[in-house]
């Protein structure tokens, strides 16, 4: 089941986000920078704040009443390459036991339909250069690399590729 998230989902979104982020990016263990980021970024309060914003949306996937995946859209984001405002697919997180079942593809399809319905012609995202599984996923769904940017964590720069897709 796919639906637009509500305030009641805030804690579950925060925990699932932290879990998936750690699984993908804390591959060499936990350090202070990682702990500080996760504890600061993935909170119920931060999620609730985004849910109350007009320019941000979460779409969630559930199974048996449990949150197993999500995608978030930031409609006010400026693409670092094109310098234009277009919907950013901010996060696409699937809990690891549920990967490979088509959930990510379905969430992406629902998110792109939402963007089309709102009159947008293009979506974009960033992906860590080491995340080959995600890069292959987006490539299969028609996203093209248009440039590079960096995610900064505790003054360390981590290379991300900027991907974009026409949705007209």
Automatic annotation (TrEMBL):
CDD domains: NAT_SF. Residues 1-168 form the N-acetyltransferase domain. The keyword Heme does not apply. The keyword Acyltransferase applies. GO terms for molecular function: acyltransferase activity, transferring groups other than amino-acyl groups. It holds the Pfam family Acetyltransf_1. Transmembrane segments: none annotated. Keywords: Acyltransferase, Transferase. This is N-acetyltransferase domain-containing protein. It comes from Pseudoalteromonas luteoviolacea CPMOR-1. The lineage of its organism: Bacteria, Pseudomonadati, Pseudomonadota, Gammaproteobacteria, Alteromonadales.
């Amino acid at each position: 089941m796919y639906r637009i998230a509500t305030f009641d989902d805030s804690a579950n979104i925060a925990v699932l986000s932290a879990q998936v982020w750690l699984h993908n990016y804390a591959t060499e263990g936990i350090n202070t920078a990682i702990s500080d980021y996760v504890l600061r970024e993935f909170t119920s309060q931060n999620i609730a704040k985004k849910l109350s914003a007009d320019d941000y949306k979460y779409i969630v996937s559930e199974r048996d009443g449990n949150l197993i995946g999500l995608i978030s859209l930031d409609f006010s984001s400026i693409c670092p390459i094109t310098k234009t405002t277009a919907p950013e697919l901010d996060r696409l997180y699937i809990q690891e036991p549920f990967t490979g079942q088509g959930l990510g593809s379905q969430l992406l399809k629902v998110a792109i339909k939402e963007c089309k319905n709102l009159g947008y012609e293009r979506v974009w995202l960033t992906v860590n250069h080491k995340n080959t599984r995600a890069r292959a996923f987006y490539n299969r769904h028609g996203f093209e690399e248009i440039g590079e940017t960096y995610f900064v964590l505790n003054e360390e720069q981590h290379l991300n590729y900027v991907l974009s897709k026409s949705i007209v």
